Amino acid sequence: MSIQRAGILRMTAERFGWVAFAAVVAVLVMLANARMAAAGPVLGQPAPPFTATDSNGKTVSLTDFRGKVVVLDWTNHECPFVQRHYESGNMQALQKAATADGVIWLSIVSSAPKEQGNVTPAEANKLTVSRGAAPTAVLLDPMGTIGHLYNAKTTPHMFVIDAAGILVYMGAIDDQPRNTGANPAAAHNYVREALAATKSGQPVATPLTQSYGCSVKYGT
Amino acid sequence: MSLVADAEAIAAGVPFTLAVRLQLPAGWHTYWSNPGEAGAPTHVEWRLPEGFTAAPLAWPIPERLASGGIVSYGYAGDVWLTARMTPPAVLPPGTTAPLAAAVDWLVCAEICVPEQAEVTLTLPVVAVEATMARPAAPAIARAFAVAAAQVPQPVQAPLAVSTHDGAIVVAISSLDAATAATAPSSGAVTGAWFFPDAFGQIDDAAPQTLERGADGLRLRLVRPANVASVPPELSGVLVLERATGRIGYTVRAPVPS
């Protein structure tokens, strides 16, 4: 606590008495906790719950999927890094393998209106068909609410949540951040590894990596 | 994008410097070796004749680039990525040395565009004693001097790092004192920034605050929010700004848990 803030607290205590002072301190502690909770998801802790509308107009809540493993995949179809993973077929293959295994795959678009990657529900569905993508749902988050809740920084930015709702992986899709010359097929795919570990009840060997790609286009 | 040398001719065993120069239009930027929260570093692969060796790329000190709450580390404007080159001990005068670099880089404004190019430069080979007579043009020599001043310097001053709640506090008075006398700069420190060389040391997006406490200058950083443990060390570049400009220092210091 800074000296200035302690001084203000002491003045407050003298004016309103110690009961009021204790109440002020309690509120400050609550505010501090709320700020920490707002700082983003924490590995090994319950993944922050959210509710969103998918590209078919359906309401989707994270809690709907308790008992299933969930992948969150921040995406922007105009970002070259995302394009690389779709043009190589890497992303679709991962989605198909995961969903065939009972995993819920939520692709999330947090691009603000008029920003790169912002799509209408119809455009989102068209992209899923044209790219042969296989997410369980595409969530539209034009206000960036879920993006900020998860501190999603890049596209792609990947999160894996286990069947108990605990965040077990956050970061890059793989270890090939170069935008050219990278080979997704030869990459060390962190999401595939996290899913395999979670399936066999093992801890995820690499739970946190530096995500790479375009910044999420939250707008200003 | 071009390849520039600090010499008009080279000779056997006489080191020289090559620069990959990127001239970015206003509003566009490229990234440091650690791009921060988004982006990708520029990648340079040298294509040199047999026997030439290249030192690691010397990255100039980056800037914090903030956009939509996301903070990256990178460059705007005229970017010089340099590397010291050493020709082989035997190199016949009268020949030429074809030098090249395969470069891929990401350039972003509101949107990001991946680019790649091969840049080449062929230099004449002269006798060792003749290289002194063939320096680069004054404007090129000046540009290399400016670029060299932007490369972080190693420093011996130990950094004291402490942790308080969510903060990592770096005492920089000893660095200030150790460098004020030797740096090509003078005056009081008016700004300071830490650029971690790898992910996970600090909360990249959090503000960095320069404070003047009873024990001198301190730089307050915020530890990463999403991990349980404090990173064991800070490793990267500490930049001090004085009236005469910014100087970067490569630093490494343990963080108490």
TrEMBL record, chain B:
Residue ranges constituting the Thiol:disulfide interchange protein DsbD N-terminal domain according to the UniProt record: 6-123
Source domain of life: Bacteria
Any Pfam family hit: DsbD_N
Protein name as annotated: Thiol:disulfide interchange protein DsbD N-terminal domain-containing protein
Lineage: Bacteria, Pseudomonadati, Pseudomonadota, Alphaproteobacteria, Rhodospirillales
